Amino acid sequence: MTPTPTLKLDRMIAAILLSAMVLMGVAPMADATTPLPATPSSEPPSEQGTVATAEPTVSAATNNAGRGDASPSDPVERTPAPTASTDPSTPASEAPPTEAPDPTPAAAIQTGSAAAGPFTPFGAIGQKWIQLGGADGPLGEPTSNEQCDAAALCVETFVGGNIYYTPTTGAHAVLFESGKTGQQWKLSGGLTAFGYPVSGEACDTLGCFQRFSRGADITWTAESGFGSTHGAIGNAVHRIYGGYGVIGYPTSDELCNLPTQGCVQEFGRLRILWSAASGAYGVWEPGAIGGLYAGNGSEAGRLGYPLSKEICGLTRDGCYQVYQGGVIVWSAASGAHITLGAIRGAWLTRGLERGDLGYPVSEEACDLPGPGCWQEYQGGSIYWSATTGAHATNGAIKSRFDGLGGVSGGLGYPLAGEVCNQPNGGCYQWFKGGLIFWSPSSGAQPVSGGIKSKYEAMGWHRSYLGYPTAPETCAGSSCVQAFQGGYLTWISGITRDYRHTECTTLNDGRIKYPSGNANRVTLTFAGDYGQSYATVAYCQRVAGTYVTDWRTDGRVGAAGFKPPGVPSGPTRYNYSPTGSYTVTEAFGLGNPGTALPYRTLNPNSRWGGNPWTATYNKYFESTSWVGYDENMWYFATGASHDYRQGAVINYNRPPDSEIVQDAGFAIFLHEHKAPTAGCIALDDWAVEDFLRKSTPGDRIIMGVARDIFL
Fold first, then answer.
1. Which H or E run includes 475?
2. What pTM did the predictor assign?
3. Do the domain assignments include residue 668?
4. What are 82-105's pLDDT values in tens digits?
5. What is d(CA 339, CA 320) in angstroms, rounded to the nearest whole number?
6. Is residue 402 a part of any domain in this protein?
7. Does 589 reside within a domain?
8. Total structural domains within the chain
9. What is the arithmetic mean of pLDDT over 141-164?
10. Which range marks the domain in which residue 685 is found?
């Protein structure tokens, strides 16, 4: 019969007294019983089968895992080691206590009906019963005495359920009537299928769950009804993701038909995957990372199974997740992209997303010649080929590399990363076909081929040449490259270095007179007016750039230069003209090997100096020597040998201009370095070298330095 209220009260008082006796060390008269815990029960005081707090307590930091706007949970990206389990039915690191068989035959334990006689719960089970409201709680009256087995598993049955106790797990109830999970436990095999409870039933606004000793949870939601999780996947729910309150309750059964005998279970947006090699981790779908994972075939694709949960809190609020075949990285600015293999290794050496490359902004593509692969990042690119490995290019060096055709250009694949901390703040990077140097003042410039070999032999950027300031330019069999301190040329396999001189002004526009694109330009300049001493720079044009073949001193008119635009006048005044003039013919006692039209002098060779005559400022022959005419034979064969070798400077004569009478004549470049009547006089070796290298159209620019240079 049903006990009277008075009897209920008496039993509760007796239970309290018995519990107190245990605390005082007075043993009650009973069989083997559960000891009273030395500390209050860890079971939530609200556990009543309907409104208990979900357990275990979870961290809010993981509450948004898997969302594109996830809150940080790990400030530094690390690749966690997989927690492998050899059996998805057994938790990877939370082994349940050894299950003891039900100590009371099913026929001897009555549940769901009134007891045949009075029974009094005490010890840990009694305290749990009182905590749950005693006879007025969801368990109601006891229907048996507590019974224990040799393995220390104890149980007492009640009208509304059972309470189980072990020394390692404490006392927990299974609620058959008022609870959400107890009835399913009972109907699905109870102890045999799930083991004894290791937690109370815990409920939240989404549903309820209870954990059992065989590593399984029984769950319930209004939408999905009853479900269960077990083994490594169930363990991951609590240890990795913080419980059902964070990820939601299962929306599917666990299925184990995946590649490599893997398993999967869905929890709303989270799919938790398990394999023996990877352990159990979830992927949020949809979501930027989960969406890309699904788009690449999920666990059946190249990424395989996840090896970590999705971790956020990276630089600029990024997230990542590690998989067997690579890593997916996401940020709001870059989106989600896969990094893997050697390219990911190169990214790692550059500091991952914290380094100068930032986040990936494209997928790896393997469509390059070689064959090769590449991936674009916020701050540069990483290139890979089997022969070169994976290396990054970034900044100004990358821009120049791209402009030269990238790996399809002459430089090919990078051989190493960028090396900085060079003199004057410079950097360089090696490529298969050469190098790119960069400095703040010179920019990024490539060096390759024969010029690279010469540059290397001279000590690279640590020599007087410094950093390159422009790429190599070539024309035919000639190449030239400009550097901070000069030039390097390659002509038919021969390389040569040149320092900067006045010839450089022909390249950078710091000269007032045109070069006319002449193959060679001779710059002849005095320091000031009235000076006969002059500096002479013989400039050679190589692939469009003027370099200094040689530089020496010379002499001009004894009276110095006339100002620009002012005629030099008759030679008896000893002035040299200022301006830019062509050289189209040469003369002397024997051709030294010049390409200029050459006139071999004879005793009748004359140069007209008498104005208003037909021969003024022209070559002619005569047996006489009249007035201001010049006897070229005399000046060629005399002791001073001025005209033994010489070239005509086309001042006041075609092709540069029409002849103006009495404006000046016989302006030559000749031997015998001494003050002249208006000509340019050099050492014999310089005149002969000038003639051997000259071609029609070469030019001489002459005057006071400030009149010809800017």
1. strand 473-475
2. 0.74
3. yes
4. 333 334 333 333 333 333 344 333
5. 10
6. no
7. yes
8. 1
9. 95
10. 510-708
